[in-house]
Fold these 3 entries.
Entry 1:
Amino acid sequence: MRKPLVYFFLLLMFLTLLPIAYDWVASVEPTSPRFDRLVAFAQNLFVGSLVGLLALLSDK
């Protein structure tokens, strides 16, 4: 029953890493405020997914 949730959290973490990694690689160029908000949202979503994944995996 928990396996689909684990895969969901892993997929969510992978998808949120895309804008975070792009911001990290292209940090030399100035970015728009809209992209900065997207990166902040992706970071929050990544941390939330990590906490949810750890809670699922630690509950035995």
Entry 2:
Amino acid sequence: GDLGENQLFWGQKELQQILLLLLALVAVPWMLFPKPFILKKLHKERFQGHSYRFLGTSEMDPDSEPDSARSRHDDFNFGEVFVHQMIHSIEFVLGAVSNTASYLRLWALSLAHSELSTVFYEKLLLFAWGYDSLIFKLVGLIVFAFATAFILLGMESLSAFLHALRLHWVEFMNKFYHGDGYKFKPFSFATLADDEE
């Protein structure tokens, strides 16, 4: 849609769309490529000048080299680091798309509730107010009040609760929760006081 007089400057819509698209296209490779190559460079720098072998009981016996010395050069696997970073990048992009869809869904629901309230107002209250009968106006007002209280307010409250729960579960968890094997321990002031003693 056209922003009309709400534009901050001429061409704002086009510039923002192009800029955001370019930023999104640059951000994905920026998340994916630097970390594995930086880690590879750091690993090479760490062992620069440490390419000598330990002398064991026999210089000709490669099995006599200690395991710690041999594994020190082999502990960096570029492919594994790259695949791990690729998985995290894909998760981040999918999470961003999912979160955007979540907020669009919230916007659509609020728009639907706004339209529903307009329908109730126009088809119940204004329709009843068009008649001269006081009883008809009173019935229209009562039906409008019940529709507003039970349908709009009830649905809106339930919707707000469910969306808060869903946003916490889906969006909060995909940013901060890592199932690293730590047992969940709920916060309690009693256990906090016990730990301090």
Entry 3:
Amino acid sequence: MANFLVSIVKHTDTYGALKKSIELCNGLKDFKKNDKILIKPNLVSWDFDLPFPPYGVVTTSAVMFALVQILYEEGYSRVTIGEASLGVSGSMAKNIFKVLGYEKLREKFGVKLVDFNEDKFVAVDVGGFKLSIAQKALEADKIINVPVLKTHNQCKVSLGIKNLKGCLNRTSKKQCHGRDEELEHMFPHIAEKLPVALTIIDGIFALAKGPGATGKAVRKDLLVASRNILACDMVGAALIGYNASEVEHLKYFAQRSRQVINLADIEVLGESIEKHAEYLESDWAWTEDNSGPAGFKKRGIKGIAIRKYDSSLCTACSKLYNPMLILLSSAFKGEPFPGIEVLTGKRQKASPGFEKTILFGKCACMQNKDNPNIKKAVFIKGCPPDLNEFQRLLHEEGIECNYDQYVSYRHYIYDRYEDKDGFDMGLFKII
């Protein structure tokens, strides 16, 4: 990997910093003027109903605008931005494009905007199984991958390799979160099938306890770029405190691509890793006996065992996991719950000794439909389940949740970010 360059540039002026980061790593070296270029940002989610802090969650519009402008000035005119964002009720990429101002990129530079979910997918053999990858991604001559600098509670970091999971259709995304398959041995196959020519990690913000808005963002002001996706991810991981040898999907990808995981083999230009490295937690604390979040124990919540999520919990249910916890917490009035176990995902099995077992989501329901350990099952069906139905079914069981507490929590996580600390929503707008 000694031949690969990775640039780390301090972000001040977005255009200037991005141009420098691309130049330092010779990022456009292999690009041809007539190439079909696909830009893949990280637009994993948005919330159009409740306050949503995008810091460290989605790629900033400032970086996207600067990148498109640089490509335009260099004479690249066949540029497409594509993403397959999924909300609880379906595709939302077009709406996210709109809220982030991408339509102005189309108006000013002629960029095409593609919601992969509304386009075609191709089933691709990735070695013993198939994943359905966006046709536009497969047909591109070059892909510029623009993830954000964030942690992930299921795989420690979510950088360039993980960002490509957003090129899959919904079924294949769920397939990556299999009962028998390991998530970190699934999505790295996507990178092997796509012409990723440049990876740019948007590190204006970095996110602890990611990948969603319930994590905690910090202002980092870094841009990381490389023509080698693994080298870029290794440096990105190091900047948030993770050795690539401790991140399973990076090790797996390195093994399959016959590359060595050793930072000493990478030439880092610009800023140093050591100067900016800062450990960010990737996961949420759980009790030692796996009875629930540490926060529940701190509040004295008893009588309920919420088994910690694993990698079989797919993205759609993951987005509902935090609301589920807040709603269950809101039902605690000082008295212990009446012996409840809560299960999610495709692997968790009911334990004996509980009066009621809440099965959250279609997969947990199927996994435990005939489990003899269950005295009374509360089936929260759906893929993903509906929160209103969740509250209704719990009400029937005498468990009274208060949705207003979840709304208050969402306002809290938004209001904790202030302009004076560098949390500028203007970075997510294109004027």
